[in-house]
Amino acid sequence: MTSPDGTGLSGAVAVVTGSTRGIGRATAFALGRAGARLVVVGRTSDASPNRRLPGTVEEVAAALEAEGVEALAVQADLADPDQTEAVVERTLAWQGRCDILVNNAAFTSNGPILTVPWRRWQTGFRLQVVAPLQLCQGFLPGMMEKGAGRVVNVSSGASIAPVAGLALYSTTKLAMERWSDCLNLEAGGDGVAINTLRVDRLVATEGFQYVLETQGVEVATVGQGMAGVIEADAAASDVLWMVSQPLEWTGHTVGFADIAAAGGPPLP
What we know:
This protein is of the alpha/beta class. It has one domain (13-203, 230-259): NAD(P)-binding Rossmann-like Domain (Rossmann fold). The chain has nine helices and seven strands. Strand 1 (13-17), helix 1 and strand 2 (37-42) form a beta-alpha-beta unit. Helix 1 packs across helix 8 (232-243), helix 3 (81-95) runs parallel beside helix 4 (118-146) and helix 4 (118-146) runs parallel beside helix 5. Mean pLDDT is 92; it is low at 1-7.
């Protein structure tokens, strides 16, 4: 269980989406090493691996368990409402509750706004807005009933800085931030903290490395260069800091510099 003041993570049940690689995987390990029990959610599994990128839900869960962390692997495509609902059902069947929800799964489909098929926009809104909402509708009532729970929605600096070719990602991440604000207005406080991490630096995830190797620095960094790129562990440290704050700390959208200025991990 969490500590009486809601700040301890020992025994907490944490659900992290998109945790087969990148920020999600690093966050799962950061939370697990702090004492949480992990529900590892991802689309790729041993039976259905990604053709280009490493990582499956079973592999991450096994690696956590090798470090002494209790973990449940849940393969789910969050574009599918039924599979999203199964995340809630399996988590509650396993531990009876969710104390920490990290909505990290994302969808990108880069290209000119007039050429990216409209159906991909539906997928983007599903992954960045609707699926996180569905998970919150499944888990927040339990958090509110016991008066302790945390939600971290992982957004992007693209939400506030329009970039040609990133319209889908930028728009849906901005929608996530506004949705998170509204959720906090209605459900935040009284023991439930709802905050957003705006990932406003490029992160060297496996996907980033793949684009870097196959398409070059200009494409991978959207013309920004490698100087500001940080490791996924640095982003995970900020998520850990966010869920370790008092439950009264709610309704914030923060970037890496904001967290550093508030006494969190220093900028890499």
